[in-house]
Amino acid sequence: MAVQKIDIEQFLALAKEYPVLDVRSPGEYLHAHIPGAFSFPLFSDEERKTVGTTYKQESREQAIKIGLDYFGPKMRKMVEEVEEIIRNRQFAISNEQQETDNKEKQLPIANCLLIHCWRGGMRSAAIAWLLDLYGFKVYTLIGGYKKYRNNVLETFKIPFELKIVGGYTGSGKTILLKALKEKGENVVDLEGLANHKGSAFGNIGLPKQPGQEMFENLLAGELRKLQNRNIWLEDESQRIGLINIPKDLWNQMRESPVYFLEIPFEERLKQIVEEYGVLDAEKMTDAIGRISQKLGNLNAKIAISLLNEGKKAESFDILLKYYDKHYFKSLHNRKEINSLLHTIQCKSVTPENANQLIRLSQLQQQSP
Asked: CA 82, CA 80: separation in Å to the nearest integer?
């Protein structure tokens, strides 16, 4: 066998079937990586720094010699780690097929691997050589992770058919996205990918947000899966916590039809109390403090006081009115809003509102 170099489209297609080994340093991987890739570093962060410094200050040859000193003792362990990765993957696929009783689908060839480093240079070549020598079928990515990142950024320029779920805070938009997906609709959950609910309180009780680059990698992967299909997204500000929706995609969202759920204020307030009333009161208070200028200092003080007294509904009433004004402005700050906006009257917050969304979107598609 011989190591085969492939382009990004081939690489991503094969990545659906075979393990991807990211041979960059642990720090590079931690910063951002191809979703699903295994961290399989040739060098530690410190070793990479030493090799790089030697390359710049001494010579390429001396850097390679130092790299070989690091690489040599790791070779056997690397081969055994890859064997373990493949065994675990094969076991997981086998179990999945047994659960779905999918007898027609064949298991992928067990010994195929995909490898990449930063630019498709010496790091991926070294490990590819080792694993090919041992007997694995190895593919390496031309241009490395840098080429993958170019692909990610180009993804957001693709013209997608988007349908935006709109509604004031407390309308249960995240609940609707889940219901739409369960009904077979194509959905991308931006807040789920960002680990943030989009408001000043959106990070409370959730895991740490991914970095901007990792969020983009995750988002591009989801969009690529659904390319050439209608995709439901929640109406969002461009910023979700510490993360920005890529501008090219956000511009498309702002030009796409909005299916707006008109739900009575009291029903939405019930939903907010149920959703946010269980969160840590101290963190909620801190969050109110961060938006005190926008909310108005007096309103913020009253909201915090009511929250501390256990009067959650009264406190959230103040907050909800603020977010209603904020969302109304964002909603209508679109070109051609009259033609984009489709309002759906709903009595309460329920997953069943998804049926109305689907019916209305189908009617819109059928109309000339």
From this structure: 5
Which pTM value belongs to this model? 0.91
Cα–Cα distances in angstroms (integers) from residue 270 to residues 88, 172, 248, 365, in the given order: 46, 11, 36, 34
- Residue-wise pLDDT for 262-291, tens only, equals 999 999 999 999 988 888 888 999 999 999
The CATH number assigned to the domain holding 282 equals: 3.40.50
Catalytic residue flag (residue 117): yes
- Both tokens of 300, joined, read 């913020």
Q: Tell me if 165 sits within 8 A of 235, measured CB to CB.
A: yes
In one-letter notation, the amino acid at residue 295 is L
Edge-first strand order for the sheet with 161-167 is: 230-234, 161-167, 258-262, 341-345
Residues 83 and 171 in one domain: no
- The residue among 152, 178, 202 that closes a domain is 152
Structurally, the chain folds into a number of domains equal to 2
Question: The domain spanning residue 59 has which CATH number?
Answer: 3.40.250.10
What lies within 8 Å, CB to CB, of 82 at 6+ separation is 19, 21, 40, 113, 131, 136
If asked whether residues 118 and 79 sit together in one domain, one would say: yes
Q: Which of 63, 115, 117, 141 is catalytic?
A: 117
Asked whether the beta carbons of 105 and 99 are under 8 A apart, the reply is no
Domain with 235 in it: 159-366
Question: What is the pLDDT averaged over residues 42-63?
Answer: 95
Amino acid at 229: R
- Tell which residue, 205, 204, 176, 174, has the closest CA to residue 191: 174
